[in-house]
Amino acid sequence: MKSKTMNRRDFLKLQASLALSSSSLLSLLGVFSPLKAEEFSDYKALVCVFLEGGNDAFNMIVPTSAAAYDDYAKIRGNLSVSKDALLPLKNTEYGLFTMPAMQEMFNADKLAIIANVGTLIRPVTKEEFEAGIAHPPQLFSHIDQQKQWMTANSNTLEPSGWAARAANLIENRSDFTNISVDGSNFMQSGGAKPAFEISGDIRPFDHYGYADPDSKAAFDGILHQIIQREVESEHLLVKAYADNQIKNIDYRESVSGALEGASDFHFASTLDNEPGVPLAKQMEMIARLISVHAQLPNTPKRQIFFARLHGFDHHDLQMTDHPLKLNYLNSVLREFQDAVESMQLSEQVTTFTGSDFGRSLVPNGNGTDHGWGGHALVMGGAVKGGRIYGEIPELKMTAGGYTSDYITKTGRVIPTTSVEQYLATLAAWFGSYSVSELESIFPNLNGFDEKNLGFI
Amino acid sequence: MHSYIHKLLPGVLSILILVGCSGSGGDTDPDPSSEPDTAIQIPVESKEGAANFLAHATFGGRKEDIDQLLEMGDYTIWLNEQFQKKPTKYLDWINRHQGRDLRDVVVRKAFYNAWYSIAVNAEDQLRQRVALALSEIIVVSSIGVEYHYPLADYFDLLLDHAFGNYREILYHTALHPSMGIYLSTWGNMKEHTTENGTLVHADENYAREILQLFSIGLVQLELNGEPKLLDGKPIPTYTQKDIEEFAKVYTGWTSDNGAFYYLDGTNTLASLVKPMVAYEAYHDTREKVFSDTFNDAYAAPQSIPSGLSAKDDLSYAIDIIFNHPNVGPYIGKQLIQRLVTSNPSPQYIARVASAFNDNGSGVRGDMKAVIRAVLTDEEALLKYKDQHPSPQTDGKLREQLIRIASVMRTFHAAGDPSISSYPFYDFEAAQNLGLHLQPLAAPSVFNYFQPTYSPSGILQKNNLVGPEFKVLSPLKMSDFGRVMLSVIGLTDTLHDQIALDLGYEKNLLTLQGPETLIEHLNLLLMSGQMSSDLKDELIGYAATHQNAQDITEQIIALIVLSAEYAIER
């Protein structure tokens, strides 16, 4: 039976009506079932490492064959990376720059590269782009592109994140389905449950850092007493606030209790002057939480984690700074994968990168401007690694301009894979969603032929 | 070592050392408004009423402020006095404390220190509160504008116009380089075709946000803020076509730097604190015609004639936007939300919107009239508490910045000058503690929280909004608790200790006992509205822990961390 393509409104109506007459409706639609009838028997986690600012992916993965490298170097000028620094990727004509652990993982089939992925409403060529049609709104704006990556619906002003929508379809969803170690983000907001935010840097429930333990006990005691009374307040805002305080206390007990039993990971990678909470600390926290996922309230079987490495907006000083960031990322990802493997969860934890956009191929002095398409990395035991999925456009310029159909006149690379296709592939592995469910999570997925890129 | 020379997207910025630059704010209150209306009298009924009023209109009523207002005897007199006060400005503060070192890492710290210092000490309290409120509506942010120097100047602009006219606020913020950079009007060229044959459109960012956020919102509104309905559905205010038409207006502007950025790209900090200038060659002088959807709200179809200069075009556009019937209710409601309550009744909104539409002397957009209407409304003043239409849902969650500043102000916080050259608040240490909220640092143009945010749980179930809850989710409670305890002095995790002056309070406890202290704190912190339950709990605790050295600080902390206090009513 051909499954009906549903739009979101249909899907939501269906969810409501299912409450009334499940079996007859289910049989009408065949395999479609929006709520998981049975609990997942296994554990799976997706870990997003968002490279904030726009990663210059075309310097992360660089052509290695002589002619192609020369073409690349001609376009990128003073920004091109040295050929000697490239680490060859097996069975490809490309190399990784300054990411030895990632090379190793690629060659061991645990890392896949998703080529030239970016926000798209539908596939588009450079002619259409120059004519100003069919490209996502606010294309080179950080906040808009980050949002579109995280809401995965470039066709509209989508208010909810794709991870929130994915979590909505999980029956046992809880406050611990979506977890962020770098604060609130669009990817995880707008769902039925908020994301649990925990800082990777500060000890989580250092509840009131009060010095004298006896005084602390007395103080905490009376404060709890006050809160417990206020929860019964007839004033709705007072009650709402007290409700939040109670939740904080509950989480303190349950989560910090669970964390006490967590594996004691310590990641040694560092980066000078790293803005915000260090990625190493963030990933350490994720590893710890994964190690005790079975002790968290509701015992989540499916979790989506969000971490962020800041500072990729290399309008300036790209040649000194970008390599350090890539190298650091490489190092942290290695430590994280080691931690996952030590927990024997390699097949169950998949880590993937995203970024606002790539950069313009053409330098603007010693930096780059905002671009569009860029490459993503996917890492884990379940990944069908050792391959580049999708198309890396030919980086070549002749007298007539760029030879590729996907490079604009100003040197921006038009994505050949959409964010929806990329994320839907990950989501399909994660939640075992059907095609219809995936289309409800990614309403714009219909604009593309290939709905699963097959890398996991 | 990461250098701090950034590029503005996509131009180049070089930081020059400045001497004696001037702000772009211009004259204070140059805008049309009425003379203060001394005929209206609104007597101050009690010290609790005075305290409550000051909680809305300032960063916290100290004992002497409450006494002074009580003595004035009339809220109108207080307002008129505040309307006359000159602004305490940020660029001045920064220049005085920073001198020649204008690296952003240094200016940023100075800016935040200035903010707290001014909130705690400055006399133009009302103006500062209103400017903060405006900065949360007409948003620019350091996430987007990488330099705090022009951001400080932007804040000064809001200070200058806080008691002026909203039309001028719209106009002058449009021309501030901070806004230009933030919403991409800076260096925005009219539609053109490049040499290679690429058609480049004018940027639509500002055109969209000025309508969506700074003036009229997405749907047509009644005077009382309710959406107008057609066949049961809300009516949109504009279409994509209107955005494109307005986008033509905001072309040709760039910082006053001798070149349009595209050609040269060198900018100085000095150029970022002066209004943008127009390069007519890049300005779209075509006629601007609006859709039926947009025109529906007006008596006659709106358009802007062709052939105008960039400045005249902008003026025309701002006038059209300013005169949209939505502005009164849309902006009026948000000002109520920032100053008094998250869920005002439709009648309250209508009263404020009416004051916006006509200040009583035929002037539209008079900020003084609007502020007066917001702060002295029957739903704002404590004296009318018994007649309040919805006593169980009134008030708002105190905004974090104000919550911290008011504790500091109420108890005369002074920094320790021996620790750092800033007499206030170490912003970096606070960030490490878990405070990630600062003025002009919103994550997006939608501010830290949207006016329509309704947290899940009991508020959502009752169709109530609580915008400030967005940044104080359950999981942020610990962070915020740590910050407050440090401000109060119970922990010393902040590097620069802010010493609250609790001499008066400690004496009160010693000489007169816990009940008197708690009544005093009740007045200062909660306008006398503390519940008897909380009073009993605190008195009981104080009585059994009277020997603890820091019992006064503990009592203050317990109040400040309580839900009753958190919700200002």
Structure explained in plain terms:
The complex is a heterodimer of chains A (456) and B (569). Chain A has helices at residues 8-18, 22-29, 66-76, 100-107, 126-130, 142-151, 162-168, 213-230, 236-260, 279-291, 318-342, 419-431, 435-441, and strands spanning 44-51, 61-63, 86-88, 94-97, 111-118, 178-180, 196-197, 302-309, 349-355, 374-379, 388-389, 397-398, 401-402, 417-418. Chain A is an alpha/beta fold and 456 residues long. In chain A, the strands form 3 sheets. In chain A, strands 1, 5, 6, 7, 8, 9, 10, 11 and 14 form a 9-stranded mixed beta sheet that branches. Chain A has a 3-stranded antiparallel beta sheet with strand order 2-4-3. In chain A, strand 3 (86-88) and strand 4 (94-97) form a beta hairpin. The longest helix of chain A has 25 residues, at 236-260. Chain A starts with 7 loop residues before the first helix and ends in a 15-residue tail after the last helix. Residues 1-37 of chain A have low confidence and may be disordered. The longest helix of chain B is centred in the first third of the chain and has 18 residues, at 104-121. Helices cover 44% and strands 4% of the residues of chain B. Chain B has a two-stranded parallel ribbon. The N and C termini of chain B lie far apart (50 Å). The model of chain B is unreliable at 1-28 and 417-423 (pLDDT under 50). Chain B is mainly alpha-helical. Classes of the chains: A alpha/beta (456), B mainly alpha (569). The interface between A and B is large, with 67 and 77 residues.
Short description:
The complex is a heterodimer of chains A (456) and B (569). Chain A has 456 residues and is of the alpha/beta class. In chain A, 35% of the residues lie in helices and 13% in strands.
Poorly predicted ranges of chain B: 1-28, 417-423
The residue-averaged pLDDT of chain B reads 86
Number of strands of chain A: 14
Strand order of the largest sheet of chain B: 1-7
Helix content of chain B: 40-55%
> What characterizes the major β-sheet of chain A?
9 strands, mixed
Roughly what percent helix of chain A? 25-40%
Mean pLDDT of chain A: 84
Number of helices of chain A: 13
Could you tell me which chain pair has the largest interface and how many residues each side has?
A: A-B, 67 and 77 residues
Q: How many DSSP E strands of chain B?
A: 12
**Which consecutive residue ranges of chain A, at least 5 long each, have pLDDT under 50?**
1-37
Using only CA atoms, what is the Rg of chain A? 23 Å
Summarize the biggest pleated sheet of chain B: 2 strands, parallel
Class inferred from helices and paired strands of chain A: alpha/beta
